[in-house]
DNA sequence: GCGACAG
DNA sequence: ATCTTGTCGC
């Protein structure tokens, strides 16, 4: 697929100040409301039920099901490996990847300038037109509301969601005491460290999976946030639907595995 | 100066 | 993110 907004390219040679200014521009172009055509309820995983009956009409509606892509990165020395796995109705239909030399180190808040180019190059290799992207990292849960999921989503004008294992910034509306139960979600609000008005719901802590006996051992929640063209609430709904009994959503797990596969092919 | 800090 | 064996628990 093609880039729609090349002016937001995550150029690693920019100064820190220029990078931050670019992020404010990206956030201004982004929308954190539901702006997509597919039915959120139609998004599903592949490893779930196999009782997929034909429709009453007998007509196959697979062509109407949204294409969801998972995006993940791996590193080999100074090279960044970006992997994308596309699936429709839970079935993998295409996989692409790109290997790009990293130019800058990891800096909290500027992740897209380290990994963005590799991700975009992998997207350019994609021949199918995705309806939604699940990106590892934050979206709106970011100092300037422009995490990597937002940056990628805006450049491609593609509905995108950010899925992170740790909270970059913002504050939970209610503190987690001990642990959450599977399926629970707590709003993540903007605080003084976020450019959004204080109290704005910028994402959710989502307990995608939990052990039977959390008292002895528990799983940490996922921190999900809108990247582009998706609301915080729908973001949590979609990620929850994509988690087939695992902590990470299916698209992410597949991209993760593919990135490891490619990684073994590349030398440092 | 002291914390906070996606991947 | 990455370096890595065993090990705890369901």
TrEMBL record:
Residues 33-65 are annotated as: Disordered. GO terms for biological process: DNA repair. The keyword Nucleotide-binding does not apply. The record marks 106 as: Interaction with target DNA. Coiled coil: none annotated. Gene3D superfamilies: archaeoglobus fulgidus dsm 4304 superfamily. One of its GO terms (molecular function) is RNA endonuclease activity producing 5'-phosphomonoesters, hydrolytic mechanism. It is found in: Cytoplasm. It is an enzyme of class 3 (hydrolase). GO terms for cellular component: cytoplasm. The keyword DNA damage applies. It comes from the Archaea. Residues 53-64 have a biased composition (Basic and acidic residues). InterPro entries: Endonuclease-V (IPR007581). It catalyses: Endonucleolytic cleavage at apurinic or apyrimidinic sites to products with a 5'-phosphate. Belongs to the endonuclease V family. DNA repair enzyme involved in the repair of deaminated bases. Selectively cleaves double-stranded DNA at the second phosphodiester bond 3' to a deoxyinosine leaving behind the intact lesion on the nicked DNA. PANTHER family: ENDONUCLEASE V. This is Endonuclease V. It comes from Haladaptatus litoreus.
